[in-house]
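Quick illustration for those who missed Monday's session on complexes.
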Amino acid sequence: ALRVAEVEKGKTPEDFQQVYNAIAKKIIDDDEYDNYIGYGPVLVRLSWHSAGTFDKNDNSGGSYGGTYRFPKETNDPSNKGLQNAKAFLEPIYEQFPWISHGDLYTLGGVTALQEMQGPKVPWRPGRVDLPESATPENGRLPDAENGADYVRNFFKRFGFTDQEVVALIGAHALGKTHMANSGYEGPWGAATNTFSNEFFVNLLNEQWKKEKTEAGNSQYNSPSGFMMMPTDFALKEDNTYLKYVKKYAENQDVFFEDFKNAYKKLLENGIEFPEGTPTIVFKTLDEQEQ
Ligand code: CCH
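Prediction with CCH bound:
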């Protein structure tokens, strides 16, 4: 299917900055969520899962149609926990009912990332709500009980390189896993609501021990109380992936640059943006106060 962006009628970058600001302020106001991690990480995860159904072979799924809003996709077992991000965004949608769901979910992730000291992610508007019939089948999101071959093959559906895959999974510096959602438990690092290269540093430097979770999944645990899932650990077991893990552990600036580019590509997969579509670089709340 051809997916052409169409900017919400009469809306300018300033209108989208207002949406950014409302999301950013609500992240600050609702700071008690998930034992004071706040909504930042779960908003980044929603943006990725809203885009993570993409299949370049038939240009189906992806962020464009905002189909996460339909029950079939909301209730995909892989999306457990994301109903919290959905509920967070509902009052934002009521305040800005002109925005498409695809734009809202992707803008939510970009806002959260930037407010958590992550890189600026140039963002383009114009995703268009598609009907329920466009909702992809469940099962397009990755299963963490797997190794490097699975990860490499999984991300082929998006056209991502090894380097882009490693950069993207570095988002696991944020937030944590929750037993009730996924059958894993615990954070990947100490700074759960500040974006950094900590995921790579910990993957290389912690003493990992493979154990079974209550749910029967395999999980690597460290004495510092950090965890890795099998697909995370796979990045250390594959020589090509390992090269990028080391590079990102050594140099946060390089990680930020590569993450920004890969994440932008993830959020825009399958969409054609006509000439004249604005590329918006949002100001953080901090920058606007100065
Ligand atoms: Fe992820 N992720 N992710 N992930 N993820 C989980 C949590 C987060 C996989 C599995 C899981 C990406 C790639 C992968 C985040 C961002 C990204 C959880 C725990 C599982 C399971 C959910 C729970 O229990 O609540 C797998 C498998 C892959 C690929 O192989 C990519 C790419 C991104 C973003 C760019 C973030 C953020 C979280 C934390 C959410 C939270 O609620 O704290």
